[in-house]
Design brief:
It is a single chain. By secondary structure, this protein is α/β, with parallel strands linked by helices. The protein contains seven helices and nine strands. It has one domain (5-185): 3-Layer(aba) Sandwich (Rossmann fold), CATH 3.40.50.300. Strands 2-7-1-8-9 form a five-stranded parallel sheet, with helices on both faces. The radius of gyration is 16 Å and the shape is globular. The two termini are 25 Å apart.
Length: 193
């Protein structure tokens, strides 16, 4: 049986990566597709595990070769999902989680209407700001850019099948894991609120 394609999106600082990690640890039928990016690695990130780090020129060659399921430019960097690995997982019966910015999520939704869309957000924009500032990986200019983008992203949450509000990490993790288990066992409508 072919797996489900699951798109997780939401503003920077929402805790998407943390919730995805918890889901991957709890639900063995899930696989994570590593995205490619032109942004610089953050401390502790490993090429091929966290992202496939490419130069802009390399990334543009991948676009020309049609190697991405989706790609988008976000805060001055390119991000994309290599399609071949996603297809391998799906054909193996694994459900694949993609962590995407809103532009990429919309591309996948158009290209793959069967994809299950999950929106993750912090309880408020003030909390988003606090989390981003706490990372200490952003310049003030980049922080303001991400916050401005977050306003538009939150407005798009009605485009998604499911929403997880990450106010309390433990509660949000349980909510996300329950949604993933339901999607893996029954598809798009299984975990609808």
């Amino acid at each position: 049986m072919r797996g489900s394609l699951i798109v997780v999106s939401g503003p920077s600082g929402a805790g998407k990566s943390t919730l995805i990690k918890a889901s991957l640890e709890a639900v063995p039928e899930l696989a994570y597709s590593v995205s490619a990016t032109t942004r610089r690695p953050r401390p502790g990130e490993v090429d091929g595990r966290d992202y496939i780090f490419l130069s802009r020129k390399e990334f543009e060659h991948w676009i020309e070769d049609g190697r991405f399921l989706e790609w988008a430019e976000y805060s001055g960097n390119l991000y994309g999902t290599p399609e071949q690995k996603v297809e391998e997982f799906l054909n193996e019966g694994k459900s694949v989680i993609l962590e995407l910015e809103l532009q990429g999520a919309r591309q996948v939704q158009l290209k793959r209407p069967d994809a299950v869309m999950v929106f993750v957000r912090a309880p408020s924009l003030e909390e988003t700001r606090r989390r981003l500032a706490g990372r200490a990986t952003e310049t003030e200019e980049a922080l303001e850019s991400r916050l401005a983008t977050a306003v538009g992203e939150v407005a798009a949450r009605d485009e998604f099948d499911h929403e997880v509000i990450n106010e309390d990490r433990e509660r949000a993790s349980r909510d996300m894991i329950e949604k993933m288990e339901s999607i893996v066992s029954g598809g798009r409508d299984a975990a609808r609120p």
